[in-house]
Design brief:
single chain, globular, 28% helix, alpha+beta
């Protein structure tokens, strides 16, 4: 069994964690709230609603691994967004450390955006 709890696959069987469920829920909610404070400087929608966050894993030692992408590999914000994500997640109480993995597999597309993001960007 894995020692991480993941928020990327709601239809997958639950992964057992030594973190009490109540604390895991709080950490997850607080991490999502922190991610929603990070904006791509060129787009007026947070990166979570844009669908740039692919996976968040919380290990039993409260280390957090974030898999994220950018709207394009040539995104001008490529140098700053991962650091902004790391800082936002690190600010969450109870998180012992953060590792951000930038990936382009699968490539991001507009279908990953939430309805809220589509509305904000007038993409209906």
């Amino acid at each position: 069994m894995s020692d991480t709890a993941s928020t990327d696959a709601p239809n997958m069987p639950a992964i057992e964690s030594t973190i009490p469920q109540e604390e895991l829920d709080r950490l997850t909610d607080d991490i999502v709230a922190a991610l929603k404070t990070v904006y791509d400087p060129e787009i007026p929608v947070d990166i979570y609603e844009l669908g740039l966050i692919y996976k968040v894993d919380i290990a039993d030692d409260r280390q957090v691994m974030v898999d994220m992408t950018l709207t394009t590999p040539n995104c001008p914000s490529a140098a700053e967004l991962p650091g902004m994500v790391e800082g936002a997640v690190a600010s969450v109480g109870g998180v012992s450390g953060v590792n951000v993995n930038l990936t382009f597999d699968p490539p991001w597309d507009q279908g990953r955006m939430s309805e809220e993001a589509r509305l904000a960007l007038n993409l209906w």
